[in-house]
Design brief:
402 residues, alpha+beta, Aminopeptidase, Alpha-Beta Plaits, 2 domains, four-stranded antiparallel β-sheet, 9 helices, 34% helix, Peptidase_M20
Length: 402
């Protein structure tokens, strides 16, 4: 593919073509085989030397700049969701019950378009760019980010950048902030065990449902009374299963839920609070309890220097109106946070809404991002790469947190 001689219109049309292929052929976590092959082929066509993941469908490649220097990384996720599409688009999903309802088709294509733009500006790249197409972002609590890290694709990377479409911002806007931007996401499973009896003789049994009701009351007080009102956290019990018959005192109830936090301190304290409640129920109600806490994605915590660089670049590329002021953190989660536990980086929200049209949120069967987000995102991210490498070459300390 002759990137250097492509017109802007031809470049954009090719990327729309790729995006619509991805949208028509979605694949869920751990099953991204065809998506991976498509990306691998495109990267080869662009003259890169892609590498496949070990035991997963991730793909990585490297763009060598015109000058030697440090390396930065760009990441896009690849997987879709088990959602039946309801957009009515002519290029709607051809895989029944599976849809790119979280915009990962836009993410992949934005990164491909960013690569096209960087190849056209190769002489300006003072170092190299590691390209990461990551599988299984939706596979909580594991996440595909750790697959890419285990394979060594982040070795020698000095800064890492990523984005997510954001339907609440119109196309042409981006949101970014220093510090916590998206939540740590964990999962809990509690099994409360009592003893059955006839409902007419409740004193002979130990009612697991009543104990579960007490648990629900007490766990709801953790956020309001054990966590600082200046902090952000939520505990949601999404399923509860128990009992076998209307006239039998139930002997077992299983509850499952999720916990979202915006700081690692509260994230570590909440399991201790839950265990304390269960210990109290054992004493007061006579039940036994099993408690499993599954740590999932960490808090997505943008590093100060990369976050400022992204904000300054957004002003440069999009103008002051393109940068959403006062971005409020969101309690959705992203496994990009794993990368930033070890490497300075920044994650941003890419507006994909259309002025005057209904907003359909992420994971919604009607999600239909504005395809102009591809142009906005690729122009921004290619300039982020140029600016980040220039800053690193000038000795800017991306690790600085004060």
């Amino acid at each position: 593919m002759d990137v250097l001689h492509m017109t802007e219109d031809a470049l954009e049309a090719k990327c729309v073509e790729w995006r619509r292929w991805f949208h028509e052929h979605p694949e869920v976590s751990t099953e991204e085989k065809n998506t991976s092959e498509k990306i691998f082929g495109i990267l080869k066509e662009l003259g890169l030397d892609p590498v496949r993941g070990q035991g997963h469908y991730g793909v990585a490649a490297t763009i060598q700049g015109g000058k030697t220097g440090p390396m930065v990384a760009l990441r896009a996720d690849m997987d879709a969701l088990s959602v039946r599409e309801d957009t009515g688009l002519p290029y709607a999903s051809q895989n029944p019950g599976v849809m790119h309802a979280c915009g990962h088709d836009i993410h992949m294509t934005t990164l491909l378009e960013t690569i096209l733009r960087l190849l056209r500006r190769k002489d300006e790249i003072q170092g190299s760019v590691r390209i990461l197409f990551q599988p299984s972002e939706e596979l909580a609590p594991t996440g595909g980010a750790r697959y890419m890290m285990k394979d060594g694709f982040l070795k020698d990377v000095k800064a890492v950048f990523g984005l997510h479409v954001w339907p609440n911002f119109v196309c042409g806007q981006i949101g970014v902030k220093e510090g916590a931007m998206m939540a740590g996401s964990d999962r809990i499973k509690v099994v409360i065990k009592g003893r059955t009896s006839h409902a007419g003789h409740p004193q002979e049994g130990i009612d697991a449902i009543m104990a579960a009701a007490d648990f629900l009351q007490q766990v709801s007080h953790i956020v309001s009374r054990r966590v600082s009102p200046l902090a952000t956290a939520t505990i949601n019990i999404g399923t509860i299963h128990g009992g076998s018959r209307y006239n039998v005192v139930p002997d077992e109830v299983t509850l499952e839920g999720t916990i979202r936090t915006l700081d690692e301190t509260n994230r570590k304290r909440i399991p201790e609070f839950i265990q304390g409640i269960l210990d109290g129920l054992k004493a007061s109600a006579g039940v036994d309890c099993e408690f499993n806490y599954y740590y999932g994605y960490p808090v997505l915590d943008n590093w100060p220097v990369p976050a400022k660089l992204v904000a300054d670049t957004a002003r440069q590329v999009l103008g002051e109106k393109g940068l959403v002021s006062h971005v409020v953190p969101d309690l959705t989660a992203e496994d990009f946070g794993f990368y930033m536990q070890d490497i300075p980086g920044c994650f941003l929200w890419l507006g994909c809404g259309t002025e005057g049209e209904p907003v359909h949120g992420l994971h919604n069967a009607k999600l239909c991002p504005n395809e102009q987000a591809l142009v906005v995102g690729s122009k921004l991210m290619s300039q982020v790469v140029i600016n980040a490498l220039a800053a690193l070459n000038q000795g800017v300390d991306f690790n600085k947190k004060d």
